[in-house]
Specification:
Number of domains: 1
Helix content: 25-40%
CATH topology: Glycerol-3-phosphate (1)-acyltransferase
Structural class: alpha/beta
Strand order of the largest sheet: 1-7-6-2-5-3-4
Strand content: 5-15%
CATH architecture: 3-Layer(aba) Sandwich
């Protein structure tokens, strides 16, 4: 999604997750982590680059719906991520993805509304997953990035952690409803700071620069993940 550096009106910091939400997330994410490790033999490299506390934007490559679950297993804390509001049409599935940290976004709604939601989530101290390529892509080359990740990180004054994920396109190809037992490799890179790291408005040039750096790092990490995955 494209964004501008127009200011987003400050909002009161929303409450963080309830104790029930944290417990629910722990159970569901533990189950997901177990499946990915045992069934898909998931391997993670670079965990030392993940902030031990505080909010940050996790920016992975995106080749499969499984990428969301792969991202959720990287930290013990609840990760938040966007989901099309239509995913909540099936109540049971809606409750499941909500327990994993998803929040609904109306497709076609103003980018600013989505960005405000993301900024508010970061202000609660929770990490946020944003796929900078947008929707799922195909192939070994990282697509041109939208600037949403850099914009949100700049507004909230948090870092971006780039992540390359390989193998998920074989685990659950686009259009497939089956999950296959192929290995998943995740490679995490060093955090990226947008501008000087101070929350608030930043020049458009800083957003573009951070997005360019993110693109280069994602390609390098994706290449390494694919190499480890045998691609």
């Amino acid at each position: 999604m494209t964004t501008t550096t127009e200011s987003v009106r400050p909002q009161p910091a929303p409450a963080g997750p309830s104790r029930g939400a944290r417990i629910g997330y722990w159970f569901v994410s533990s189950a997901v982590r177990g499946v990915l490790k045992l069934y898909n033999r998931a391997r993670v490299t670079g965990r030392e680059h993940l902030p031990a506390k505080g909010p940050f934007v996790l920016a992975p490559t995106h080749r499969s719906n499984v990428d969301t679950f792969a991202a959720s297993m990287l930290v013990r804390r609840r990760m938040r991520f966007m989901g099309k509001n239509t995913l909540w049409k099936v109540p049971a599935f809606g409750r499941f993805i909500s327990s994993l940290g998803a929040f609904p976004v109306v497709r076609g709604s103003a980018d600013r509304d989505s960005m405000r939601q993301c900024i508010e989530i970061l202000r609660t101290g929770e990490p946020l997953v944003l796929f900078p390529e947008g929707e799922r892509k195909q192939g070994p080359v990282v697509s041109p990035l939208f600037d949403g990740a850099a914009f949100v990180a700049a507004k909230a004054g948090v870092q971006i952690v780039p992540v390359g994920i390989a193998g998920t396109e074989r685990v659950m190809p686009v259009g497939s409803k089956m999950i296959w037992p192929h290995r998943i490799d995740v490679v995490i890179g060093p955090p990226i700071t947008v501008g000087d790291g101070t929350p608030g408005s930043v020049p458009r040039s800083a957003i573009r620069e951070a997005t360019a750096i993110l693109h280069a790092q994602l390609q390098s990490l994706f290449d390494e993940a694919q190499r480890r995955n045998g691609a």
